[in-house]
Write a structure and sequence with these properties.
This protein is 28% helix and 21% strand. The protein has 13 helices and 18 strands. Strands 1, 2, 3, 4, 5, 6, 7, 8, 9 and 10 form a 10-stranded mixed sheet that branches. It folds into 3 domains: 104 residues, 2-Layer Sandwich (Alpha-Beta Plaits), CATH 3.30.70; 221 residues, Alpha-Beta Plaits, CATH 3.30.70; 108 residues, no CATH class. The protein is an alpha+beta fold.
Amino acid sequence: MTKLAEVVEQKSDAPLHGVQSGRVEKRHSESQSDGQAKVRIKKAKYAMLLAYQGKNYFGMQIQKGHPTIEGELISAMHKLGWITEQMKEQPSLFHFQRAARTDRAVSAVRQICGMELPQRDDYAIIGVNELNTLLPEDIRVISMRRATNLFHPQKKCCARTYSYTLPTFAFAKPTELTNAAFRIKKETIDEINHLLSIYKGTHNFFNYTSKREFDDRSCFRYILSFECGEPFLFHDDVRNEDVEFIQLTVKGQSFILHQIRKMVGMVIAVVRELQYKSYIQRTFESDRVDVPKAPGLGLLLERVHYDVYDRKHAKTHEPLTDWGPEVEARVKEVKFELITKEILISELRHQSMLQWLADLVRHDFCADPEAEELPKQTFLTMAVAKAEEAAKAAAEKMEVKEENVPSCEDGAKQEALEDGTTANVSSCGDTIKKEIQEDGTTVDIPPACTDAIKKEIQGDNVTVQSGQITEHCRACMLGMWSVIPGKGAIKLCEWSTHSIGQSYQLACPLRLFQK
């Protein structure tokens, strides 16, 4: 072989020889220029503490087409450049997770989120302020701090604490008025705490959620504590009166959908004597029971607990259960102004608990129509049964005399001296006629009289004024029993079909205003 042939053969084999020896050099077009070299951004795992008022949102987790807490939060992080457009559309790309998926309208004061972000030392102060300037007023980021690379806010959480705030008149007895003037007794608080303690421990809560069966192991939940706090007063500026509220606090490893609201609803039903105490234990058994679900307004995620995580990483990372006195002071301030105050005001304005109580007296605990249960009326008439017993005793001592009543236009006054009943009607326009059929008494009462109308029933200290008639009508229907001489116990009626401010002539359970 000539020298020229040897040179040509060596050149032709050079690329192959380079591949075999691993020494192939990239072409100039394939290599990156110095100005185009990519800079690797250091990232770290962070825990975020936030609070929010949930009434304007469809829960915590993102739902396309609906406003959610995560949707607002991730959108704000994208505007700040913390995450890319792709990460915004697919949050799992920056490992975004939350500790608890709160439902629609449910609020939280110490929700924890975990995420991977570009490493910075000023997230806790500057980063928090940047986020809050872009977030709605009802979502507040409280603080941020570094977490371990494997931190998962849901899986590392060992317990959750929720509170439920409600007016104390929800626990009124059948012999007590259900209105703003109600003040709970210590004996009732002790009874509530006893009922709440029944839920402590591990139980099958399949009756406290939906679309679950008794043999579903996921229905077993462990409750660590369930307690009733001390009552407190909140002033209603519209009605210029103080209303008493109370808070129930429950701590458990985890909860299933609707569980807390149904536990609260069941306790209210028992305290109001619409159900037996023993029925609570029955709800843990295999028979299907329709447990009443309390309104969602008062429910609040108070805290998520990371006790095991905090002990394990105490030397390298800050705790995530207790964020320290400075952060806790901020949490307390945000909690009242953003969440608690709104819960109290909303309850006073919309009276969701009062409306729910109106339906509770008709609630059917027997969900299976073929089950051998007592009829629905048995549960509805437990309170009325006491009234009938008292009415029978009162009827032996009272006798109503029939009296003639002049027309309303001339002014009318009826007195039944023996039973102490009085009905004063001032002069006014047109009248409607009220007839008490059992005793034959007929009284002309104006449908819309601006003058005072007063009815006193001796024996149960019931007084109804014209300016307070709607309050007392609802109060009576929601649990107060009354004895009308010669007439017997009251009958439950449908006030909830009327709006506040409308005439209650067709809905008064004391029959003071009736067609």
